[in-house]
Design brief:
Elements: E1 2-6, H1 11-22, E2 26-31, E3 45-48, H2 54-64, E4 68-71, H3 78-83, H4 85-105, E5 110-116, H5 139-158, E6 161-167, E7 169-171, H6 189-198, E8 204-207, E9 219-220, E10 222-224, H7 225-239, E11 247-252, E12 258-259, H8 260-271, E13 277-280, E14 289-290, H9 295-301, H10 310-322
Parallel strand pairs: 1-2, 1-4, 2-3, 4-5, 5-6, 6-11, 7-10, 8-13, 9-14
Antiparallel strand pairs: 9-12
Helix pairs in contact: 1-7, 2-4, 4-5, 6-8, 6-10, 8-10
This protein binds nicotinamide-adenine-dinucleotide (NAD) and uridine-5'-diphosphate-glucose.
Length: 326
């Protein structure tokens, strides 16, 4: 299979590239390197370009002619999306529109798209499955929901077959330690905890102890990045199955929630030392609990996460953070 990974130099995209390579597929990456890293991808054909420009993505679609397009490229900082919504609609929403039109023009009909639990907004039930109403509470979530809606329309009207994967909290790193999470600024909990552990930050700031949860700290469902990548390959198989619809939607998580303080304590156990922390006010727009109901991915895709335990997820991230290469 020939795969084109858009946003393949980023955190999740680069793990996808490795997973595709290990499975023996031919891979190319399209990226503008706005948040991605050249060092994160090797032995792969690289097209440098911006998805917002049809003139830059079109020749790649027509020249490389992938069997499958995997689309990871997006801006994904919730706070930034609230102060600069135009950036999110231009990059995320219009980017998908440009991609869909290019795929239609060049008769490419298989797409897997990275979406997010942020489309659900405040949870109304303990585990969020795909039937939960969508009601984003930030522009980032809305930009992804608009993308999903466009993808669904193109499936209905133009013969596209697509899988939309709504990730919960992507975490961990490839067990080889060669690639991992390197955002600047880093806003995610586990890398911030491990930066404090390794001394790249004085401490980790914990946002709020007054949430409506069992211990007052926010609860999230952390899912290993390679388990996410595996789900993409299984989704491609499902796109080729006649018994599955043209537009498919799956939540991806372990179905288990951990509070911020539980993550911190688990990280301390992994690294073998106390990690300095300070308590701050709640971060605007943080829902108290986000835990996936991911039974559909398990039953239809046959997806079983291989690194579901929090301490193992953190251990892979710790390996990366100790010798961070980029
Ligand atoms: N990290 C998470 O926990 C999480 C959770 C849910 C969903 N997601 C989604 O998964 C995807 C990947 O997230 P990530 O954490 O790896 O992000 P990332 O920022 O590490 O990677 C995004 C990649 O896309 C590239 N890119 C961005 N805009 C582009 C454009 N216009 N043209 C070409 N390339 C462009 C960047 O350079 C980068 O390499 C995103 O779509 C994100 O919304 C992430
Ligand atoms: O330095 C930090 C960073 C985070 N947190 C808290 O830790 C939890 C997790 O935060 P973070 O790692 O930033 O993830 P989320 O805000 O849950 O968002 C991630 O997971 C969502 C899906 O669940 C996706 O939509 C987003 O793209 C992705 O960034 C939240 O309660 C934060 O308030 C801290 O206390 N300190």
């Amino acid at each position: 299979m020939k795969a084109l990974v858009i946003g393949g130099a980023g955190y999740i995209g680069s793990h996808m590239v490795k997973t595709l390579q290990r499975a023996g597929h031919e891979v190319a990456v399209f990226d503008n390197f706005s948040t991605g890293h050249r060092e994160a991808i090797e032995d792969v054909k690289i097209y440098e370009g911006d998805l917002q420009a049809a003139a830059e993505i079109d020749p790649v679609l027509s020249g490389y002619r992938p069997d499958l397009v995997l689309h990871f490229a997006a801006r994904s900082l919730v706070a930034e999306s609230m102060v600069d919504p135009a950036l999110y609609h231009a990059n995320n929403t219009c980017g998908v529109m440009t991609l869909l039109d290019g795929m239609r023009r060049h008769k490419l009909d298989r797409l897997v798209f990275s979406s997010t639990a942020a489309v659900y907004g405040f949870p109304q039930q303990r585990r969020i499955d795909e039937s939960h109403p969508t009601a984003p509470i930030n522009t980032y979530g809305w930009s992804k929901l608009f993308c999903e809606s466009m993808i669904s329309d193109y499936c209905r009207a133009y013969g596209l077959r697509a899988a939309v994967l709504r990730y919960f909290n992507a975490s961990g790193a490839d067990p080889s330690g060669t690639i991992g999470e390197a955002h600047e600024p880093e806003t995610h909990l586990i890398p911030n905890v491990l930066r404090a552990a390794v001394g790249r930050a004085d401490k980790v700031t914990v946002f709020g102890k007054d949430h409506d949860t069992r211990d007052g700290y926010c609860v999230r469902d952390y899912i290993h990045v390679n388990d996410l990548a595996d789900a993409h390959l299984l989704a491609y198989d499902a796109l080729n199955r006649a018994d599955q619809p043209d537009f498919q939607l799956y939540n991806l998580g372990n179905g288990q929630g951990f509070s911020v303080i539980e993550v911190l304590r688990a990280a301390e156990a992994v690294v073998g030392r106390t990690i300095p922390m300070e308590l701050a006010d709640r971060r605007a727009g943080d829902p108290p609990v986000l835990v996936a109901g991911a039974g559909k991915a398990r039953s239809i895709l046959g997806w079983t996460p291989k690194i579901p335990e929090l301490h193992r997820i953190i251990a892979t991230a710790w390996r990366w953070h100790q010798e961070q290469r980029y």
